[in-house]
Structures are given as C-alpha cells and as structure tokens.
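Supplementary Text 2. Reproducibility record for the structural model of the 151-residue chain.

All settings were left at their defaults, and a single model was retained for analysis rather than an ensemble. We include the record here because the model underlies the residue-level annotations in Supplementary Table 4.
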Amino acid sequence: MLLYKKIKPQCFSEEELRKIWKEEYCEKDIYTFDNVIVEFHENQFDHLFYESYSRIKKDKSILSLNRLEKILWIKDVLQDNTAILKKGWDNIKKVYYEDRRVAIVKNNYIVIICFTGLLKATIVSAYEKNDITKIINSPDFEKTEKYFGKL
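Retained model, structure tokens:
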C-alpha cells in the first residue's frame, strides 16, 4: 500500500511549488505499475493545479491548495497496482477514448493519462471528484497491443 503523502502548500511560495513539480515529475522518469513511462511538462502545472472560478468560463484563475496538497499523489496513483482503471470519456464526441486511462484511488482521487505510443503516455489531469458514479460505471480500461505490445 502506498503512502499518499500530503504536503502543506500554504507553507510554500508558488515558485517553490512549481519547483517541486519540476523536480518530482519533469526531471525524473515516472513509470506506472505496468511499465508505462509517463511524460510531464513544466507548463502543465497551471492546468493541474489551478481551478476555475466558474465552471462555465473554465478560466483556471485560482491556485488550488486542495489540489496542491496532493501533488505527490500523482506519482503514487500511477504506481498503485490496486487503482481502479477505467476508460476516459470524450465530452465532445460522447464516446470513450481508447487511449485514455483513468486511475481512481482513495475513493475519489483521479489521475488521467493519454497513451502516445508503445508503453508511453502523458499526464492529462489529476483531481478529486465528489461524485464518481459515472466514472465507476464506465468500461474498464483494456490493454491493447498498440500501447502495450504483444499481450
């Protein structure tokens, strides 16, 4: 069982938090429990750790201390072989992605990756969601030869 250690983001400046992101994710090779290397980029910090004042505007204008306290969880989730794995949902096309994997831990913490090649992916998002009923009821993620090689 992984620790899922929280930090106290209010004790850090935004610059220090960005440095944690860079050092923990962007400068290290992060592998999932099933050997997929996941890419992280410095410019993804804003997407992952800012929230929108309005869900309608989706402006990502507020630095989220709630999200930041779990900054180290992303790596833990990716490496947790007990996570619930589901297919991601495309809100625009209204279909399930074949290349997105949603990992759920601790009842409602979600990490989404997008496969970009054989055993390669990039981070899409990470957040807590109060009602995960739709996600839990979505199809299980299935490994395919395209992203995992000969099965």
